[in-house]
Amino acid sequence: MSLLKDAIISALGEDVRFRENYQHPASVVFCTVPKAKFTEAAKAMKRSYALLAAEWATEETPWFGIFACYRWGSEYLIVKTVTTMDDPAFPTLTKKYLPAYRFERQMNSLMGVVPEGHPDLRPWLKFEDWPQDAYPLRKSFDASKPMPRVEGEYRWSRAEGEGVYEIPVGPVHAGIIEPGHFRFQAVGEQIINLEERLGYVHKGIEKRFESMRWEDGFRLAGRVSGDTTVAHSLAYCMALESMSGFVPPERACWLRALFLERERIANHLGDIGAICNDAAFAFMLYQLMRLKEGILRTNSELFGHRFIMDRIIPGGVAVDIDVKGKEKILSELKWLEKEFEKLVTIYDENPSLEDRVRGTGVLLPEKARELCAVGIVARASGMNLDCRIFNPFTPYDQHDRIEMDVPVLVTGDVHARTWVRIHEVRESTRIIRWLLDNMPDGNINGTIEPPSSEKAGFAAVEGWRGEIIYWLQSGPEGEINRCMVRDPSSVNWLGLEQSIPGNIVPDFPLCNKSFNQSYSGHDL
Amino acid sequence: MKFMPLLIEIMQLLLLLAAAPVFAGWVKMVKCWSQGRNSPSLMQPYRDIAKLFSKDVVLAENASWIFRFTPYIVFGATLLAGGIIPILSVDLPLSATADVIALVALFAIARFFAALAGMDIGTAFGGMGSSREMTIASLAEPAMLMAVFTMSLASKSTSLSHIAQAISQSDIHMALRPSLAFAFLAFVMIAIAETGRIPVDNPATHLELTMIHEAMILEYSGRHLALIEWAGMMKLFLFMSLGAAAFFPWGIAGAGNMAAIPLALLYLIIKFAFAGVVLVLIETGLAKMRLFRVTEFLGAAFLLATLGMLAHFILE
Questions:
Q1: Looking at CA atoms only, how far is residue B17 from chain A in angstroms?
Q2: d(C-alpha B194, C-alpha B206), whole Å
Q3: Chain B contact for A303, CB < 8 A?
Q4: Number of residue pairs across A and B with CB atoms under 8 Å?
Q5: Which of A101, A116, A131 is the last residue of a domain?
Q6: Which of A371, A498, B37, B197 has a CA 20 to 30 Å removed from the CA of B95?
């Protein structure tokens, strides 16, 4: 019996209805509540210390479905309520859960459902010069036509007083990074407020999914955020497979884990270097990029793509590894470990660098919890979260054999986020060795049937940034009715915004890099 | 004979113009090697300057004359400073008219106008850069003057030619004074801050929010930017020359000694090659410090310079 299920039953009693054989995998509890009880369900979840993992809306004529997904430990519970299309209002969760603030702005902007009592309904991911009534996620919206432009204004939060000034940064930045706007209010060098504005790389990915075939969706998922291509397509495939009741061959799962860990190592290496570079310690950047490049070239040689894009497919994986490939990876790991440890020593023993990273950009554990942060950001702020442990797929579920050791630090500063990455690189090299030594033989893929109508699939995968959630829903004809993508960035961007006030202006790039959230994954 | 000093003066200015980009290229080259990378050639700064000169200037609509004239003022003031510092020879006519205090003032003029220009356009970054630059200047200039006074106490003159001559002609015990050692340490720290090197500023960064000097000149383009960049390279070159003239003047040609100039050039190359390596070692081994640590850093420089002065009176 699940704890969250108990909690919601004892709070709502008869009002909560469980729907069997709809949500897959069955371990994810799915229930519907009347609209008036939506907040009460959230209250019950909050009392059970559950975190809000995602909130989204669907169109199921003549209703809008409003969904909230809660997580506690390894349990997921999805609460659904419906609202009519004539009066698309639903009670807001912002009073209970902070991340609902952006989820609901996004739902309001893209689906046109109205969270009643939400403090701030400015558009999010949508621009002020788009027509008010253009809701891209509604079925009636034609995505093939260009969006007409109207007059509009975005009201920024303001600060006034003597010596207060404003620094607008972006959306186009000096480096080769994605676009996003940051607006600082500062007194002298002290930042008193930071407001983020994202959405500049909104591509309508969720909408695009709805016009795709099930078996093609993984390609689009692999392009939600290019640096996390493995984890995103894996999450899509797992959600799809759970809907069709397909169990991928064991070897395929092990290979998926291998790809996932290689992606993690490559990105963490780049990130650690980039963090040092933002403190003007360029030596580390160039050395770590050299290591990262080594990993990427081996990927390209063995799996045919530097980032292993499109190698995870519904039903399994597209590429196998042979004995020679195994030897290649093992010898590369030996090289990597030796080089990496040398660099870690340099990072660790340089006081000037340490002075920059310690105590900078602190996201306090209580705050991280309140914001329901995920991934490396959460683990650097004292939250013990990792889908590989709490929601594992084969081979991560063999806990006694794999003996995962996920680092959790509590200081929540740039240093902690860097150290979590360093630990994870070490842990991932160990896991890869274990995977290669114990990999079972067998097929690497199977044929998967498209899911039947009126079903929902769910998957949560620990990408290198953190937990990626996909929620798929099939429509009456068995087509993709909705594909909800929740990149870790969707919640962690709020963490950056909250960790900045009190820091000084020139420390922002360093803090930002230590979070290194995806713009594309957030903007969809 | 009267023409000789004038000739030397002109030679020195030409050397400054020509060699400053090469020295900047050398620093870049050593830096790349220290990071395990291939480097651009020594001539790359020339190409960068040439590229900028061939580009159009993009001016903001509200740019006033200050913004347009600043590059010339910065370039001119820096070039003039090159006429005072004995790079090759102490036989400089301009050196008699302006001493080391005037030198500090020349750099201050350039900085003053750069800061004004940074604020002229009205962008957040320009104002931010100007404010930071002036904060650093207000700390670096007193420390610089203090170090300069210590040097001049040792040689009983504020003229750089005299200082260089006094130290190079004295015996080794004169040159190894504790007061000069303190002053030298202070000078190195100030030079790092003044020329915007790591750990005070990062000349290679693209992060606007962390910039100090670069933020001020962010709006410049085309020939304006070329002049400012060139002046920046000259400033680095001049601080190195100043250090060489005040603390390691051996090899600099004496008054009226034309024949010693080729040798002086050779010494110069050796000294600068070495100085570039030392600069890179400092820059590679350190991360940039938090902005407010710069006050402690320059405070320490001021303290060292003061100690040098005290050491002069107590020990010498």
A1: 29
A2: 20
A3: no
A4: 77
A5: A116
A6: B197
CA distances from A280 to A80, A481, B126, B277 (A): 49, 48, 21, 18
In the numeric block, which tokens belong to residue A19? 């729907």
User: pLDDT at position B173, please?
Assistant: 64
Do A104 and A209 lie in a common domain? no
Contact B287 A286 (CB under 8 A): no
CB of A339 less than 8 A from some CB of B: no
Beta strand residue intervals within A117-272, DSSP E: 164-169, 181-187, 190-197
Closest CA to A309 of A274, A245, A266: A266
Could B34 and A504 be called an inter-chain contact, meaning their C-beta atoms sit closer than 8 Å?
no
**In this structure, what CATH number is given to the domain that contains residue A297?**
1.10.645.10
- Tell me if chain B has a CB within 8 Å of the CB of A280: yes
Nearest CA in chain A to B205: A280
Q: Give the pLDDT band of residue B22 (cuts 50, 70, 90).
A: very high
Among B131, B135, B210, the strongest candidate for a mutation testing the A interface, having the largest count of A CBs within 10 A, is B210
Q: Same domain, yes or no, for A213 and A112?
A: no
H helical segments located in B121-194: 124-155, 160-169, 172-175, 178-194
Q: Is A406 in contact with A426 (CB distance < 8 Å)?
A: no
Domain boundaries, chain B: 3-33+45-315
Residue B250 binned pLDDT confidence (cut-offs 50, 70, 90) = confident
CB contact under 8 A, B207 and A278: yes
The confidence score (pLDDT) of residue B172 equals 64
Reading the block at residue B153, the tokens are 């106490």
Rounded to an integer, what distance in angstroms lies between the CA atom of residue B39 and that of residue B84? Answer: 33
A138 touches chain B (CB under 8 A): no
On average, the pLDDT of chain B sits at 89
**Chain A environment of B205 (Cβ under 8 Å):** 280
For residue B1, pLDDT beyond 60 = no
Predicted model pTM: 0.91
- Which tokens sit at B25? 């290229």
pLDDT in tens, A14-49: 888 888 888 888 888 999 999 888 999 999 999 999
**The last residue of a domain, from among A116, A138, A171:** A116
Asked whether residue A156 is domain-assigned, the answer is no
Q: Measure B208 CA to nearest chain A CA, in Å.
A: 8
C-alpha distance from A408 to closest chain B C-alpha (Å): 26
Query: Does A330 share its domain with A466?
Result: yes
Position B157 scores a pLDDT of 86
Whole-angstrom distance, CA of residue B112 vs CA of residue B105: 10
**Residue A290 touches chain B, beta carbons under 8 Å:** yes
Q: Which helix (H) or strand (E) holds B181?
A: helix B178-194
Contacting residues of A for B199, CB less than 8 Å apart: 280, 352
d(CA B177, CA B39) in angstroms, rounded, equals: 39
Both A215 and A112 in a single domain?
Answer: no
* Confidence category of residue B174, pLDDT binned at 50, 70, 90: low
* Residue span of the structural domain in which A235 resides: 205-523
Mean pLDDT for chain A overall: 90
**What's at A182, amino acid-wise?**
F
Contact A174 B204 (CB under 8 A): no
- Please determine, for residue B228, whether its predicted confidence score (pLDDT) is greater than 70: yes
Residues 6+ away with beta carbon under 8 Å from A71 = A50, A51, A52, A53, A77, A460
